[in-house]
Amino acid sequence: MGLTLQEVLVRALKKLEESSLQKFIEKLRVLEVRRQYTKIPKDELTGKDPEHIAGLISTYYRDGYGAEVTLDILQDINEKKIREELQQDVMEARRHFIDRHRADLINGIKAVGQVADDLYRKGVLKKKERNYITRPGNPEEKMRRLYESIRDWDDRDKDEVYQTFYEYNPRVIIDLKMQEAESQLEEGLGVTFIDHHRSDLIRRITDVDPVLRDLRDQKLLTQEQYDDVVKKPTNRDKMRELCDVISHWEDAGKYKAYITLRRLNEQLIKDLQRNDTGGHFIDRHREDLIHRITNVDPVVYDLYRKGLLTVEERDNIMRPGHPEEKMRRLYESIRDWDYWDKEEVSNSLCKYNPRVIDDLKILEDEPQLEEGLGVSFIDRHRSDLIREITDVDPVLRDLRDQKLLTQEQYDDVMEKTTNREKMRELCDVISHWEDAGKYKAYITLRRLNKHLITDLERNYTFFPHLAKTGSPLRTKGLWGTGTSYDFENHLEQAGGCLSAWDSDTETIMELMRRCPTTGVHFIDRHREDLIHRIKAVDPVVYDLYCKDLLTVEEWDYIRRPREPEDKMRRLYEIIRKLHYGDKEEVYRTFYKHNPRVIDDLKIQEDESQLEEEESQKRDQLQMSAAWMAVDNLNCKLCGKVQ
Q1: Distance between CA atoms of residues 66 and 62, nearest Å
Q2: Torsions phi, psi of 517, nearest 5?
Q3: How far apart are CA 103 and CA 303, in angstroms?
Q4: Domain 175-277 CATH (choose: 1.10.150.120, 1.20.1260.10, 1.10.533.10, 3.50.50.60)
Q5: pLDDT per position as a tens digit, 19-36
Q6: HEC profile for 225-237?
Q7: Is 70 exceeded by the pLDDT of residue 486?
Q8: CB 3.0-4.6 Å disulfide test: which of 39, 405, 467, 606 passes with 399?
Q9: CATH code for the structural domain at 5-94
Q10: What is the pTM assigned to this prediction?
Q11: 381: how many CB neighbours lie within 10 A of its CB?
């Protein structure tokens, strides 16, 4: 699975009963450590959970000695089974990436000669070894000879091999790292699965007894708990009682219970996973993808190369025909695939047909579609678009290719000499279109001018009154990213003449300082809470990487620390400058893998908002008087004191 040693220690300590964990901590308090190590202070061990204990062991004793200490204490407190499991996990965790994936790398690495030459240039391989590896043969034979040569190398030299593999065969390494991340991701989802689907499981599992027996045999249910649940009269009562018991278990137990349910009720669990987000993206957009994907062949070869399609399935899909026919055959083959295999299909479709996938994601992510804001966007922001879009030609070509612009309209607009003239003419044409065409034009603009459109949407959403007035305040970049100010009530009191005020920066900033911030994004408002409380960081980071919000390097950088909190701080370093729309994607990913944390924070916000509204009602008269006293601004048009 590619776990770190600290994660392995956490897993072992979570298996201990409370009494055994306390014995473990007491042994750790009195441990006589080797001279080169500093003993963990006793007060740091008080009232700590397994995650903190494992973190202290790794911090003070490092990985090698820390694992040795943990194994010795488990032996002393007579937890032999957990010690044996930990010993196996430690051996696996200590194996280098290129050893863990030996078979996959032997089969996947093709540029073996270049790898061997590079290692020779770096002084890691001797000339004799290089010549031995590069003797005639297929890549698999050469890779086996390479592994013979590096078998006894230390981790530092194996790091050089890993980097060289990555340099010449990046796709192979990325795929293997994704497999490791997916394995951890599945475990993270499994932990929350039963709590998340409690009502569905109670209603739909029709035979609970095999589940109970299995959990008892694994010693997850005690005999007493088993007897209490099994005597309930109906399956619903049994499942309700079982869910109550499981809700108090540690994460390791919850995950094992999920595995048991999945094994004994496979189709039901698959259905529930598929419906977690309304079905997978490729299922939700089946017809759109069938009609719009034109680059089918490379997608099919990509899935075959990943081992997801058999030769027969590949050949069947690739039979001569239109792209639409091939896509229908592809859907026949992937119909019963699980969520993660469909995620690979989505990645391959995006790789070779990015524009189609981007369009569908924008449609899906557009929260304002129901209000018709996308339809009216171009008319509403006409002046901003004319002024701000500096390259209109790609927009025109795209609209022509979609057959939204006729060739004659395209030629007429292209004859204009400046971008402003072209955009003005284009806006005039679009204003006469039906709503469906206006919305497609908005999607095109958003795809080709993402940051500008996001900024305009954000300002309209946060400052609808300012957006309508065309105030220079909105376009001078004075709003901080993701920040808004509650001008609405104060504009009304000031006579609604903001567009006529002197827009000198000092005056504007003074007004901004008086107004409370209201539009900072959720993930920024709750930065510290999320850093401390989000535990399933790796699946979040993997998802963001798949959505192209993180690069491979950023993904590696974030996953390097052991503690979730440290990973979260690194994630925040990278997402700090994201636009509001991208932060929405981060928020959704947080919620997908850590729903309880997000729900708790939203409840806190709702409660706080209710209190604030009550307070505002009580203080309305005093606040109005205060604002009238300080807002002594002169209107340019009438000279009247506001």
Answers
A1: 5
A2: -70, 135
A3: 19
A4: 1.10.533.10
A5: 888 888 888 888 887 766
A6: HHHHHHCCCCHHH
A7: no
A8: 405
A9: 1.10.533.10
A10: 0.32
A11: 23
